[in-house]
# Entry
Amino acid sequence: MKVTFPHMGNLWIALKALFEKLGHEVITPPPITKKTIDLGVRYSPEFACLPLKVNVGNFIEGLENGADTVIMMGGSGPCRFGYYGQVEREILNDLGYSFNIIIVDPPEGDWKNFLRTLGPLGNNCNWKEVVNALLLAWSKIKALDHIHRAFLKSQHYESSTACSCYEDIIKKIDIAMDRKELRKITLQGAGELMLLTETEHVEQIKIGIVGEVFMMWEPYVNLDLEKTLGSMGVEVVRSAYISDWINENILYNPSCILRKMRFKRAAKPYLSSFVGGHGWESVGETILFAERKFDGIIHVLPFTCMPEIIAQSILGSVSRDYKIPILTLSLDEHSGQAGFLTRVEAFIDMVREKKRAIV
Ligand code: SF4
# Structure
């Protein structure tokens, strides 16, 4: 099979390693650019959410580069994510592409169906080879998240050095083909990044990022929000990582179950049920950040995202009750860098002034 998949944040690195280890030819979709977005926008329904449009752009680029199989995550309601795979298949079929799509739904207890869906991807490898491929991909995801956390802790000290150091480490993680080497790269890389935190830094502003995960994890669509904040001397903490999602939804890791319980308990006075996507998390994590005395919150969502619009309607009350400034960035293919920068800069100035007034 010649497989392609969405290019979301750094996830493509782990997926590439997984499918290469299983003996597939991997057609990595090119990094997201204006061309990707233009393709997705041209062929997707106008009111589809931005992540779907970006996926369509990714898949067209992957298929044009020779892929014959598209791998896509599935999901269940109540938002539109449950239909993504099917809608994308219809769009690509209408465009005349000849391909196979494998939609992987989270197991939700039905392991038989989960493994049946994944069956063709096994490529006749034996169990040992499959387990090794999965372990390598999982180790890459953990390494990427670990390095990203270290990067966010350090980038506001020396932004450009941290960025180039981070890019170098990510390249090394992409190339690494065994777990021992990965461990070494991760330890060394995190150490290098943490060295930057020894530089003197005058004022600490800490901002938590919550919202829809594709928008949080993919820098092209969030207009490089994290690095923009880092360059302003702001420390950024992301509310969720890819490894958290896998721990919660596939591995049922107890520490992540606890994390889930914590945000649900925090959100309860405002929202006490699942609204699709990460809307519930956005409310709960905002409150947890406020309780940890963060200076502000940035909520990112794709324009028309139903779960995050519900969260947005609640976050005003959270902001008032916890006296924490919250900026909502609702982004789509029309969002421009200049307007975005003005809003973020104004928000950070306001947060700084508020902090100074308190001190
Ligand atoms: S969470 Fe939002 S962006 Fe994602 S599929 Fe659902 S509605 Fe669309």
About this structure: The chain has a mean pLDDT of 93.
